[in-house]
Design a protein that fits this description.
The protein is of the alpha+beta class. It has 2 domains: about 5-115, D-amino Acid Aminotransferase, Chain A, domain 1, CATH 3.30.470.10; about 125-285, D-amino Acid Aminotransferase, subunit A, domain 2 (D-amino Acid Aminotransferase, Chain A, domain 2). It contains 8 helices and 16 strands. It has helices spanning about 25-30, 45-60, 70-80, 125-130, 155-165, 210-220, 235-240, 270-285; strands at about 5, 10-15, 30-40, 40-45, 85-95, 110-120, 130-135, 175, 180-185, 190-195, 195-200, 225-230, 240-245, 250-260, 260, 290. Strands 7, 8, 9, 10, 11, 12, 13, 14 and 15 form a 9-stranded mixed β-sheet that branches. A 7-stranded antiparallel β-sheet has the order 2-1-6-5-3-4-16. β7, α5 (about 155-165) and β8 (about 175) form a beta-alpha-beta unit. It is globular, with a radius of gyration of 19 Å. Bound molecules: 3-[O-phosphonopyridoxyl]--amino-benzoic acid. 3-[O-phosphonopyridoxyl]--amino-benzoic acid binds near residues 187, 189, 208, 246 and 249.
Length: about 290
């Protein structure tokens, strides 16, 4: 069965799931989105993702013509109709169809799109051996211009950093703030472990406040780690005992080298492995059933 895509309350076959070329999501990247995941018919942190979606929308003064409850139901109904047990869910809200000018007042109402598909898992090797990554020169967007806490359809900042990494033969990039502090990766948050401390950059620096990040911070507290949001420099990265990335798609993935500088032992760290295991357990039990 070909997957059904939800667009503004109707379901379309993948090949017929189309939106107007006048939609400001396409013309200007004027919209917001979420990437969500389900595990064995449990949607992980659905409420948190929907809350972040509405917060992103509010941040760009975009009104969503569904209540949060209705949005939750639309996601669940789409998953049910596609009979997916493990899924990747892409929830998109655009400013909607307007004219060729920037003026959002010309848009007749937001477009809501829900795509559910099979999850593309990362290779097992990445988790067993850990990732080798690189830092890149393109800084994360400055929060005063476009706050990275808004998960907007403008992902060029991240894509440019990703291209820089790919050009050097690396799959993921560490981005810094314009002031030179560690921000995050192109599609994942970053953590370091130093002694008994679990440290990740604070959201006010201009990063996406990841939902996986929040879960891992909670797990870290339960494991007795000293969990901190703190400003990190290149030096902190290079002298960390362990490092890992978090994100909906990647979950928790160890980092073993940063531009060929070995992190810790050069193997996935022992605390990282513990956090990976605890996170996996959480995804099996914590979620909205469908
Ligand atoms: N930072 C950024 C910039 C992200 O886009 C995360 C951190 C992790 O947040 P969550 O809430 O997922 O823990 C993200 C989200 C992809 C892809 O295809 C990745 C994301 C979003 C969309 C697509 O790799 N990551």
């Amino acid at each position: 069965m070909s997957p059904k895509v939800y667009i503004n309350g109707e379901y379309f076959d993948k090949k017929d799931a189309k939106i107007s070329v006048f939609d400001h999501g396409l013309l200007y990247g004027d919209g917001v989105f979420e990437g969500i995941r389900s595990y064995n018919r449990l949607v992980f942190k659905l409420k948190e993702h929907i809350d972040r979606l509405y917060e992103s929308a509010h941040g760009i003064m975009l009104k969503i013509n569904l209540s949060k409850k209705e949005m939750e139901k639309a996601v669940i109904d789409t998953l049910k109709s596609n009979k997916l047990d493990d899924a990747y869910i892409r929830l998109i809200v655009t400013r909607g169809v307007g004219d060729l000018g920037l003026d959002p007042r010309k848009c007749k109402g937001s477009s809501i799109i829900i795509i559910t598909d099979k999850i593309q898992l990362y290779p097992e090797k990445m988790y067993k051996e850990g990732l080798s990554i690189i830092t890149v020169p393109t800084p994360r967007n400055i929060p005063e211009a476009l706050n990275p806490q808004i998960k907007s359809l403008n992902y060029l900042n991240n894509i440019l950093a990703k291209i820089e990494a790919l050009n050097c033969g690396y799959e993921e990039a560490i981005m810094f703030t314009a002031s030179g502090y560690v921000a995050e990766c192109t599609g994942d948050n970053i953590f370091i472990i130093k002694d008994n401390a679990l440290i990740t950059p604070p959201a006010y620096l201009g990063i996406l406040k990841g939902i996986t990040r929040a879960s891992v911070m909670q797990i870290g507290k339960k494991l007795g780690l000293d969990v901190k949001e703190d400003v990190l420099t290149r030096h902190n990265l290079f002298t960390a005992d362990e490092s890992f990335l978090t994100g909906t798609a990647a979950e928790v993935v160890p980092v073993v080298s940063i531009e060929k500088r070995i992190v810790g032992t050069g193997q996935p760290g022992k605390t990282t492995l513990k956090l990976m295991k605890e996170f996996k357990n959480l995804t099996k039990t914590d979620g909205t059933k469908y």
